[in-house]
Design goal:
InterPro entries: ITPase-like_fam (IPR029001), Maf-like (IPR003697). The protein is an alpha/beta fold. It has a single domain, classed as Maf protein, CATH 3.90.950. Helix content is about 30%, strand content about 25%. It has six helices and seven strands. Strands 1, 2, 3, 4, 5, 6 and 7 form a seven-stranded mixed beta sheet that branches. The longest helix is centred in the first third of the chain and has 15 residues. The chain is elongated and about 50 Å long.
Length: about 190
């Protein structure tokens, strides 16, 4: 098997990838993550996942490089990482009682052959009705300022959900393992 490289500095993605019990290394790619003019969210996450993997191909020849990117979409609006308490409050108030769809782009690049598989895995969260005091308590407890949509599904953020819908719950956290296994198998990686 070619060495596996995760093109991400995300501790959440590393924790997910560890579930597959495959040896891997990780490094953060240096790319411009700005959305192109009028670029649909689906195309944005696929492009960024591919570019993250491709950014490390020259420095890591003969690797299987995993790139991933995620955005949360509320109606037509893309919700990024809030970075601040105030912005997280705004995002969660807007999401209250609504559906938020998480689009997770995934790419697996064989830097030896140049073959790159790219996909997007959606996952929808139906949010509970939230008031400002509940949102503020949640944000103080978990501080999810580095998470698209302002919550951590793998933690206390699940208390904000009414229901969820999707084929792969790991896509909600940022690395769709079911689809990744398909891609790894296509590259000849042996998994149990």
């Amino acid at each position: 098997m070619l060495p596996l490289l995760l093109a991400s500095s995300s501790p959440y993605r590393r924790e997910l990838l560890e579930r597959l019990r495959l040896p891997f290394s990780w490094t953060s790619p240096d790319i411009d993550e700005q959305r192109l003019d009028e670029e649909p969210a689906l195309e944005l996450v696929k492009r960024l996942a591919r570019e993250k993997a491709q950014a490390l191909a020259t420095s890591h020849p003969d690797h299987l490089i995993i790139g991933s990117d995620q955005v949360a979409v509320l109606g037509e609006q893309i919700l990024g990482k809030p970075h601040t308490f105030e912005r997280a409050c705004e995002q969660l108030l807007a999401a209250s009682g609504n559906h938020v769809t998480f689009l997770t782009g995934l790419a697996l690049l064989n830097s030896s052959t140049g073959h790159c598989q790219v996909d997007c895995v959606p996952f929808t969260v139906n949010m509970r009705e939230l008031d400002l005091p509940r949102i503020e308590r949640y944000l103080r407890a978990e501080q999810p300022y580095d998470c698209a949509g302002s919550f951590k599904a793998e933690g206390l953020g699940v208390s904000l959900f009414q229901s969820t819908h999707g084929v792969d719950a790991t896509s909600l956290i940022g690395l769709p393992l079911i689809r990744l296994v398909d891609m790894l198998l296509a590259e000849g990686v042996s998994l149990p």
